[in-house]
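Exercise 7.
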Amino acid sequence: MRRSIQSKVTAVAAAALLALTACTTDPSIENPPAAETEGGQAAATPAEEGGDEWFDQEAFDEQSEQRSASFTGDPEQPWLQYLEGEMTDTSEFASEGAKKVCFANASISNPWRQTGWITMNQQLEVLVEQGVISEMETRDAQDDDNTQIADIDYFIAEGDCDAFIISPNSTAAMTPAVERACETGKPVIVFDRGVDTDCATTFIHPIGGFAWGIDTAEFLVDNLEEGDKVVALRILPGVDVLEQRWAAAEKIFEENGIEATDYFTGADPTEIKKIISDELATGDVQGVWMDAGDGAVAAIEAFEDAGKDYPVMTGEDEMSFLRKWEETGLTGLAPVYSNFQWRTPLLAVEKIFAGEEVPKEWVLPQTPIPEEERADFLASNEGMPDGHYAKFGGTDLPGYPEVWQERQIP
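Solution. The predicted structure, written as C-alpha coordinates, is:
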Protein backbone atom coordinates (compact mmCIF):
# COMPACT_ATOMS: atom_id res chain seq x y z
CA MET A 1 0.00 0.00 0.00
CA ARG A 2 3.07 2.25 -0.09
CA ARG A 3 2.07 4.37 -3.09
CA SER A 4 4.61 6.25 -4.37
CA ILE A 5 -7.74 51.97 13.80
CA GLN A 6 -9.08 53.13 15.37
CA SER A 7 -9.90 49.66 17.01
CA LYS A 8 -11.81 49.52 20.28
CA VAL A 9 -10.98 46.40 22.27
CA THR A 10 -12.45 45.40 25.59
CA ALA A 11 -10.29 44.93 28.64
CA VAL A 12 -10.50 41.16 28.29
CA ALA A 13 -9.16 41.18 24.73
CA ALA A 14 -6.59 43.84 25.51
CA ALA A 15 -5.22 41.80 28.36
CA ALA A 16 -5.06 38.76 26.11
CA LEU A 17 -3.05 40.73 23.58
CA LEU A 18 -0.29 41.22 26.11
CA ALA A 19 0.27 37.48 25.98
CA LEU A 20 1.40 37.83 22.40
CA THR A 21 4.71 39.26 23.57
CA ALA A 22 5.59 35.98 25.30
CA CYS A 23 8.07 33.52 23.85
CA THR A 24 6.76 32.50 20.44
CA THR A 25 8.77 29.32 20.37
CA ASP A 26 6.21 27.90 22.79
CA PRO A 27 3.46 25.85 21.10
CA SER A 28 1.01 28.19 22.78
CA ILE A 29 1.44 31.39 24.72
CA GLU A 30 -0.26 29.95 27.74
CA ASN A 31 -0.77 26.24 27.28
CA PRO A 32 -4.30 25.35 28.36
CA PRO A 33 -4.70 22.30 30.59
CA ALA A 34 -4.93 19.05 28.70
CA ALA A 35 -8.46 18.52 27.47
CA GLU A 36 -10.58 15.89 29.16
CA THR A 37 -12.98 13.42 27.64
CA GLU A 38 -16.63 13.51 28.60
CA GLY A 39 -15.93 10.76 31.10
CA GLY A 40 -13.45 13.05 32.86
CA GLN A 41 -10.43 10.93 31.92
CA ALA A 42 -7.08 12.65 31.52
CA ALA A 43 -5.75 13.35 28.06
CA ALA A 44 -3.19 10.56 28.36
CA THR A 45 -5.97 7.99 27.90
CA PRO A 46 -7.25 7.20 24.41
CA ALA A 47 -10.25 9.27 23.35
CA GLU A 48 -13.38 7.26 23.99
CA GLU A 49 -15.64 8.83 21.38
CA GLY A 50 -15.30 7.67 17.79
CA GLY A 51 -15.94 9.85 14.77
CA ASP A 52 -19.22 8.16 13.84
CA GLU A 53 -21.52 10.85 15.24
CA TRP A 54 -19.60 13.50 13.31
CA PHE A 55 -19.22 11.57 10.07
CA ASP A 56 -21.37 12.78 7.19
CA GLN A 57 -20.90 10.90 3.92
CA GLU A 58 -22.42 13.68 1.83
CA ALA A 59 -20.14 16.32 3.34
CA PHE A 60 -17.16 13.95 3.08
CA ASP A 61 -17.80 13.45 -0.64
CA GLU A 62 -18.45 17.14 -1.26
CA GLN A 63 -15.27 18.30 0.46
CA SER A 64 -13.25 15.59 -1.25
CA GLU A 65 -14.35 17.03 -4.61
CA GLN A 66 -13.80 20.62 -3.49
CA ARG A 67 -10.12 19.92 -2.89
CA SER A 68 -9.62 19.97 -6.68
CA ALA A 69 -12.33 22.52 -7.52
CA SER A 70 -11.75 25.85 -9.27
CA PHE A 71 -12.24 28.91 -7.06
CA THR A 72 -13.71 32.20 -8.22
CA GLY A 73 -11.46 35.22 -7.76
CA ASP A 74 -7.82 36.20 -7.92
CA PRO A 75 -5.50 33.40 -6.72
CA GLU A 76 -3.13 36.13 -5.52
CA GLN A 77 -5.87 37.09 -3.04
CA PRO A 78 -7.08 33.69 -1.79
CA TRP A 79 -8.82 35.34 1.19
CA LEU A 80 -11.36 36.71 -1.31
CA GLN A 81 -11.75 33.57 -3.40
CA TYR A 82 -14.82 31.40 -3.06
CA LEU A 83 -16.57 28.42 -4.58
CA GLU A 84 -19.60 29.10 -6.75
CA GLY A 85 -22.85 28.57 -4.87
CA GLU A 86 -25.77 30.32 -3.21
CA MET A 87 -25.25 34.06 -2.74
CA THR A 88 -26.78 36.34 -0.09
CA ASP A 89 -28.46 39.52 -1.30
CA THR A 90 -27.18 42.26 1.03
CA SER A 91 -28.82 45.24 -0.65
CA GLU A 92 -30.92 45.89 2.47
CA PHE A 93 -27.71 46.68 4.37
CA ALA A 94 -26.31 49.12 1.82
CA SER A 95 -25.49 52.43 3.48
CA GLU A 96 -22.75 55.03 3.61
CA GLY A 97 -20.43 55.86 6.46
CA ALA A 98 -18.08 53.92 8.67
CA LYS A 99 -19.63 51.04 10.60
CA LYS A 100 -19.02 49.60 14.04
CA VAL A 101 -18.14 45.91 14.10
CA CYS A 102 -18.61 43.75 17.20
CA PHE A 103 -16.41 40.67 17.29
CA ALA A 104 -17.06 37.75 19.64
CA ASN A 105 -13.87 35.71 19.47
CA ALA A 106 -13.44 32.22 20.90
CA SER A 107 -9.88 32.99 21.98
CA ILE A 108 -6.34 33.82 20.98
CA SER A 109 -4.99 30.97 23.08
CA ASN A 110 -2.93 29.19 20.44
CA PRO A 111 -0.45 30.24 17.74
CA TRP A 112 -2.90 29.73 14.86
CA ARG A 113 -5.42 32.08 16.43
CA GLN A 114 -2.73 34.56 17.44
CA THR A 115 -1.39 34.72 13.89
CA GLY A 116 -4.90 35.22 12.54
CA TRP A 117 -5.73 37.88 15.15
CA ILE A 118 -2.66 39.89 14.14
CA THR A 119 -3.61 39.63 10.47
CA MET A 120 -7.20 40.63 11.24
CA ASN A 121 -6.09 43.75 13.08
CA GLN A 122 -3.81 44.79 10.24
CA GLN A 123 -6.70 44.38 7.81
CA LEU A 124 -8.83 46.43 10.21
CA GLU A 125 -6.27 49.20 10.13
CA VAL A 126 -6.69 49.44 6.35
CA LEU A 127 -10.49 49.53 6.49
CA VAL A 128 -10.52 52.12 9.28
CA GLU A 129 -8.23 54.34 7.24
CA GLN A 130 -10.53 53.90 4.24
CA GLY A 131 -13.56 54.94 6.30
CA VAL A 132 -15.30 51.57 5.95
CA ILE A 133 -15.16 50.60 9.65
CA SER A 134 -15.23 53.06 12.54
CA GLU A 135 -14.12 50.63 15.24
CA MET A 136 -14.13 46.96 16.15
CA GLU A 137 -15.15 46.16 19.70
CA THR A 138 -13.79 42.74 20.58
CA ARG A 139 -14.60 40.41 23.44
CA ASP A 140 -12.41 37.37 23.95
CA ALA A 141 -14.07 34.29 25.49
CA GLN A 142 -10.78 32.64 26.44
CA ASP A 143 -12.01 29.25 25.18
CA ASP A 144 -15.13 29.26 27.37
CA ASP A 145 -18.62 28.65 25.96
CA ASN A 146 -20.46 30.46 28.75
CA THR A 147 -18.20 33.48 28.42
CA GLN A 148 -18.77 33.70 24.68
CA ILE A 149 -22.53 33.35 25.08
CA ALA A 150 -22.42 36.24 27.54
CA ASP A 151 -20.22 38.22 25.14
CA ILE A 152 -22.70 37.85 22.29
CA ASP A 153 -25.63 38.73 24.52
CA TYR A 154 -23.71 41.77 25.76
CA PHE A 155 -23.26 42.99 22.20
CA ILE A 156 -26.94 42.45 21.46
CA ALA A 157 -27.99 44.34 24.59
CA GLU A 158 -25.50 47.12 23.90
CA GLY A 159 -27.43 47.82 20.72
CA ASP A 160 -24.81 49.79 18.82
CA CYS A 161 -23.28 47.05 16.67
CA ASP A 162 -23.71 47.55 12.94
CA ALA A 163 -22.44 44.02 12.25
CA PHE A 164 -21.56 40.95 14.28
CA ILE A 165 -18.54 38.77 13.62
CA ILE A 166 -18.45 35.50 15.57
CA SER A 167 -15.75 32.85 15.70
CA PRO A 168 -17.53 30.18 17.77
CA ASN A 169 -15.81 28.44 20.65
CA SER A 170 -17.81 25.27 20.04
CA THR A 171 -20.59 24.24 17.72
CA ALA A 172 -23.75 23.27 19.56
CA ALA A 173 -23.32 25.57 22.57
CA MET A 174 -22.94 28.69 20.44
CA THR A 175 -25.88 28.04 18.12
CA PRO A 176 -28.63 29.72 20.20
CA ALA A 177 -26.49 32.82 20.80
CA VAL A 178 -25.72 33.14 17.08
CA GLU A 179 -29.44 32.83 16.36
CA ARG A 180 -30.15 35.65 18.83
CA ALA A 181 -27.63 37.83 17.00
CA CYS A 182 -29.38 37.03 13.71
CA GLU A 183 -32.72 38.07 15.22
CA THR A 184 -31.43 41.65 15.63
CA GLY A 185 -31.69 42.09 11.87
CA LYS A 186 -28.03 43.12 11.65
CA PRO A 187 -25.63 41.20 9.41
CA VAL A 188 -23.97 38.26 11.17
CA ILE A 189 -20.70 36.80 9.92
CA VAL A 190 -19.61 33.45 11.32
CA PHE A 191 -16.11 32.23 10.52
CA ASP A 192 -13.59 29.51 11.30
CA ARG A 193 -15.84 27.13 13.24
CA GLY A 194 -19.46 26.50 12.41
CA VAL A 195 -22.75 26.38 14.29
CA ASP A 196 -25.95 24.41 13.81
CA THR A 197 -27.89 27.17 12.07
CA ASP A 198 -27.75 28.81 8.66
CA CYS A 199 -29.12 32.15 9.82
CA ALA A 200 -25.82 34.00 9.35
CA THR A 201 -25.42 36.38 6.43
CA THR A 202 -22.30 34.43 5.50
CA PHE A 203 -20.35 31.55 6.99
CA ILE A 204 -16.68 31.86 6.09
CA HIS A 205 -14.31 28.91 6.29
CA PRO A 206 -11.74 26.95 4.30
CA ILE A 207 -13.01 23.79 2.63
CA GLY A 208 -13.34 22.03 5.93
CA GLY A 209 -12.43 19.32 8.36
CA PHE A 210 -13.28 16.41 6.09
CA ALA A 211 -10.89 17.75 3.45
CA TRP A 212 -8.14 18.01 6.08
CA GLY A 213 -8.85 14.47 7.25
CA ILE A 214 -8.81 13.12 3.69
CA ASP A 215 -5.57 14.89 2.75
CA THR A 216 -3.75 13.74 5.86
CA ALA A 217 -5.05 10.18 6.14
CA GLU A 218 -4.51 9.46 2.45
CA PHE A 219 -0.93 10.74 2.79
CA LEU A 220 -0.27 8.40 5.70
CA VAL A 221 -1.91 5.45 3.95
CA ASP A 222 0.19 6.10 0.84
CA ASN A 223 3.38 6.02 2.90
CA LEU A 224 2.61 3.23 5.35
CA GLU A 225 1.89 -0.50 5.15
CA GLU A 226 -1.28 -2.29 6.14
CA GLY A 227 -1.11 -3.09 9.85
CA ASP A 228 1.13 -0.14 10.71
CA LYS A 229 0.40 1.82 13.88
CA VAL A 230 -0.61 5.51 13.82
CA VAL A 231 -1.00 7.68 16.92
CA ALA A 232 -3.58 10.41 16.37
CA LEU A 233 -3.14 13.56 18.47
CA ARG A 234 -6.32 15.64 18.81
CA ILE A 235 -6.49 18.95 20.64
CA LEU A 236 -10.05 18.90 22.01
CA PRO A 237 -13.53 17.41 21.45
CA GLY A 238 -16.79 19.03 20.38
CA VAL A 239 -15.58 21.46 17.69
CA ASP A 240 -17.08 20.59 14.32
CA VAL A 241 -14.05 21.18 12.13
CA LEU A 242 -11.77 19.21 14.47
CA GLU A 243 -14.21 16.34 14.90
CA GLN A 244 -14.69 16.15 11.14
CA ARG A 245 -10.94 15.94 10.58
CA TRP A 246 -10.76 12.87 12.76
CA ALA A 247 -14.00 11.34 11.44
CA ALA A 248 -12.61 11.42 7.89
CA ALA A 249 -9.18 10.16 8.90
CA GLU A 250 -10.59 7.37 11.07
CA LYS A 251 -12.73 6.12 8.17
CA ILE A 252 -9.78 6.04 5.79
CA PHE A 253 -7.49 4.33 8.31
CA GLU A 254 -10.08 1.64 8.99
CA GLU A 255 -10.68 1.03 5.28
CA ASN A 256 -6.95 0.60 4.67
CA GLY A 257 -5.99 -1.56 7.62
CA ILE A 258 -4.07 1.09 9.53
CA GLU A 259 -4.19 0.68 13.32
CA ALA A 260 -4.92 4.13 14.78
CA THR A 261 -5.26 5.15 18.42
CA ASP A 262 -6.41 8.71 19.15
CA TYR A 263 -5.81 10.90 22.19
CA PHE A 264 -6.97 14.34 23.28
CA THR A 265 -3.94 16.42 24.22
CA GLY A 266 -5.11 19.96 24.92
CA ALA A 267 -2.20 20.92 22.61
CA ASP A 268 0.05 20.50 25.65
CA PRO A 269 3.57 19.56 24.46
CA THR A 270 4.34 17.77 27.73
CA GLU A 271 1.22 15.63 27.33
CA ILE A 272 2.01 14.98 23.68
CA LYS A 273 5.53 13.84 24.47
CA LYS A 274 4.23 11.56 27.24
CA ILE A 275 1.61 9.99 24.96
CA ILE A 276 4.15 9.24 22.24
CA SER A 277 6.71 7.97 24.73
CA ASP A 278 4.16 5.64 26.33
CA GLU A 279 3.12 4.30 22.92
CA LEU A 280 6.74 3.74 21.88
CA ALA A 281 7.36 1.87 25.11
CA THR A 282 4.74 -0.70 24.10
CA GLY A 283 5.73 -1.10 20.45
CA ASP A 284 6.68 0.63 17.24
CA VAL A 285 4.73 3.63 15.95
CA GLN A 286 5.05 4.19 12.22
CA GLY A 287 2.85 7.26 11.83
CA VAL A 288 1.63 10.37 13.66
CA TRP A 289 -1.57 12.18 12.65
CA MET A 290 -2.51 15.55 14.13
CA ASP A 291 -5.74 17.54 13.89
CA ALA A 292 -3.70 20.73 14.51
CA GLY A 293 0.00 21.44 14.39
CA ASP A 294 0.40 22.58 18.00
CA GLY A 295 2.94 20.35 19.68
CA ALA A 296 4.20 18.66 16.51
CA VAL A 297 7.79 19.30 17.50
CA ALA A 298 7.18 17.68 20.90
CA ALA A 299 5.88 14.56 19.15
CA ILE A 300 8.99 14.37 16.96
CA GLU A 301 11.25 14.90 19.95
CA ALA A 302 9.65 11.92 21.69
CA PHE A 303 10.91 9.68 18.87
CA GLU A 304 14.35 11.23 19.18
CA ASP A 305 14.39 10.72 22.94
CA ALA A 306 13.45 7.07 22.47
CA GLY A 307 16.05 6.53 19.76
CA LYS A 308 13.34 5.47 17.30
CA ASP A 309 13.07 6.09 13.57
CA TYR A 310 11.09 9.16 12.63
CA PRO A 311 7.44 8.50 11.80
CA VAL A 312 5.53 9.40 8.69
CA MET A 313 3.79 12.49 9.99
CA THR A 314 1.25 15.18 9.25
CA GLY A 315 1.54 18.46 11.16
CA GLU A 316 0.42 21.89 9.96
CA ASP A 317 1.88 24.96 8.24
CA GLU A 318 3.17 26.32 11.55
CA MET A 319 6.79 27.35 11.17
CA SER A 320 8.03 25.15 14.04
CA PHE A 321 6.81 22.04 12.21
CA LEU A 322 8.09 23.16 8.82
CA ARG A 323 11.55 23.80 10.29
CA LYS A 324 11.68 20.53 12.23
CA TRP A 325 10.43 18.67 9.16
CA GLU A 326 13.26 20.11 7.08
CA GLU A 327 15.84 19.47 9.81
CA THR A 328 14.91 15.81 10.29
CA GLY A 329 14.11 14.84 6.73
CA LEU A 330 11.10 12.83 7.89
CA THR A 331 8.32 11.97 5.48
CA GLY A 332 5.76 14.67 6.13
CA LEU A 333 2.88 16.81 4.97
CA ALA A 334 1.72 20.20 6.25
CA PRO A 335 -2.07 20.38 5.95
CA VAL A 336 -3.48 23.90 6.03
CA TYR A 337 -6.59 25.40 7.59
CA SER A 338 -6.08 28.66 5.79
CA ASN A 339 -5.05 31.26 8.36
CA PHE A 340 -5.70 34.09 5.92
CA GLN A 341 -9.42 33.55 6.58
CA TRP A 342 -9.10 36.05 9.46
CA ARG A 343 -9.03 38.84 6.85
CA THR A 344 -12.18 37.72 5.11
CA PRO A 345 -14.84 38.64 7.72
CA LEU A 346 -13.80 42.30 7.68
CA LEU A 347 -13.72 42.34 3.89
CA ALA A 348 -17.17 40.75 3.98
CA VAL A 349 -18.36 43.67 6.15
CA GLU A 350 -17.09 46.02 3.45
CA LYS A 351 -19.04 44.17 0.76
CA ILE A 352 -22.21 43.85 2.84
CA PHE A 353 -22.49 47.57 3.57
CA ALA A 354 -21.76 48.29 -0.07
CA GLY A 355 -24.80 46.13 -0.86
CA GLU A 356 -22.73 43.56 -2.75
CA GLU A 357 -23.66 39.91 -2.80
CA VAL A 358 -21.58 37.59 -0.64
CA PRO A 359 -21.51 33.80 -0.66
CA LYS A 360 -23.99 32.29 1.79
CA GLU A 361 -21.30 29.75 2.56
CA TRP A 362 -17.98 31.39 1.72
CA VAL A 363 -15.62 28.48 1.08
CA LEU A 364 -11.95 29.46 0.87
CA PRO A 365 -9.07 27.48 -0.68
CA GLN A 366 -7.32 24.96 1.57
CA THR A 367 -4.18 23.50 0.03
CA PRO A 368 -1.59 21.46 1.98
CA ILE A 369 2.14 22.16 1.72
CA PRO A 370 3.95 19.10 0.32
CA GLU A 371 7.66 18.47 0.68
CA GLU A 372 8.48 19.96 -2.73
CA GLU A 373 6.99 23.33 -1.68
CA ARG A 374 8.37 23.41 1.86
CA ALA A 375 11.58 25.27 0.99
CA ASP A 376 9.66 28.05 -0.75
CA PHE A 377 7.44 28.63 2.27
CA LEU A 378 10.40 28.54 4.63
CA ALA A 379 12.16 31.14 2.51
CA SER A 380 9.13 33.42 2.18
CA ASN A 381 8.61 33.31 5.96
CA GLU A 382 12.24 33.67 6.95
CA GLY A 383 12.56 35.58 10.22
CA MET A 384 9.07 34.69 11.38
CA PRO A 385 8.76 33.08 14.84
CA ASP A 386 8.01 29.41 15.29
CA GLY A 387 4.37 30.12 16.19
CA HIS A 388 3.75 31.82 12.85
CA TYR A 389 1.73 30.14 10.07
CA ALA A 390 3.19 30.04 6.59
CA LYS A 391 -0.08 30.68 4.74
CA PHE A 392 -1.14 33.69 6.82
CA GLY A 393 -1.76 35.86 3.76
CA GLY A 394 -0.69 39.22 5.16
CA THR A 395 2.35 40.27 3.13
CA ASP A 396 0.44 43.18 1.56
CA LEU A 397 -0.83 44.58 4.87
CA PRO A 398 0.67 47.44 6.90
CA GLY A 399 3.25 46.42 9.46
CA TYR A 400 4.57 43.47 7.48
CA PRO A 401 6.77 41.74 8.53
CA GLU A 402 7.57 43.37 11.87
CA VAL A 403 4.13 43.10 13.45
CA TRP A 404 3.99 39.34 12.87
CA GLN A 405 7.61 38.91 13.95
CA GLU A 406 7.00 40.80 17.20
CA ARG A 407 3.68 39.00 17.81
CA GLN A 408 1.95 42.12 19.03
CA ILE A 409 -0.50 44.67 17.67
CA PRO A 410 1.17 48.02 16.84
